[in-house]
TrEMBL record:
Key word ATP-binding present: yes
Species of origin: Streptomyces dangxiongensis
Residue ranges with Low complexity bias: 15-46
Highest taxon of source: Bacteria
Protein name: ATP-binding protein
Lineage: Bacteria, Bacillati, Actinomycetota, Actinomycetes, Kitasatosporales
Length: 189
């Protein structure tokens, strides 16, 4: 289901203080620079509620980088290892990890093809949901090609995202051109 709300129906709310550059209770700063000079800023659990304490966050700046799709997949794979999704001990867990990698690939590829490239990849994981966000400076609105034609090349990215995710949507940046495309997937049991 395509949406334009910034959070899934469960309203996960803004990121904890410091995670997105916004203070707690304030609207999240979508697509803004994290202030980090390093290409990636991994962070562990936060210090808030029990749910926030179990949330793990990773960011990767992609602006100006080359080979961003494999870079994003490798970064995501490392996060999945750190978060215990990999190595998978069952076919279901292996499929869930591969689905996350595929969604990351599709969202980053779409930013490359339709939005002058991605600016940042943001991953967050708690014990129920993994959230993938890709920010870019594009003005377009991603949507699955309708009708979907499986036999034709190209145009399958958002259809794949829609099929694999619990929910996905687009948040427009308030202070500059651009958007963040987000997708949420259930954590393996």
């Amino acid at each position: 289901m395509s949406t334009t709300r910034p959070y899934s129906p469960g309203d996960r709310g803004p990121e904890p203080s410091g995670a997105s550059g916004a203070s707690e209770g304030a609207a999240p700063v979508v697509g803004a620079a994290t202030g980090a000079a390093a290409p990636s800023v991994p962070s562990g659990p936060t210090d808030g509620t029990p749910q926030e304490r179990s949330r793990q966050i990773r960011r990767l700046r992609l602006e100006g980088e080359s080979g961003v799709v494999p870079l994003a997949r490798d970064f995501t794979r490392q996060a999945l290892y750190a978060w215990g999704w990999l190595p998978a001990d069952s076919a279901d867990r292996r499929a869930a990890a591969e689905d996350v990698l595929l969604v990351v690939s599709e969202l980053v590829t779409n930013a490359c093809l339709h939005a002058e490239g991605p600016d940042e990849l943001f991953l967050s994981c708690d014990n129920k949901v993994i959230r993938v966000e890709v920010s870019d400076r594009g003005a377009g609105q991603p949507a699955p090609r309708n009708p979907h034609r499986a036999g034709r090349p190209g145009g399958h990215g958002m259809f794949i995202v829609e099929r694999l995710c619990l929910d996905w949507g687009v948040v427009r940046a308030a202070d500059h051109p651009g958007k963040t495309v987000w997708a949420e997937m259930g954590a393996p049991a």
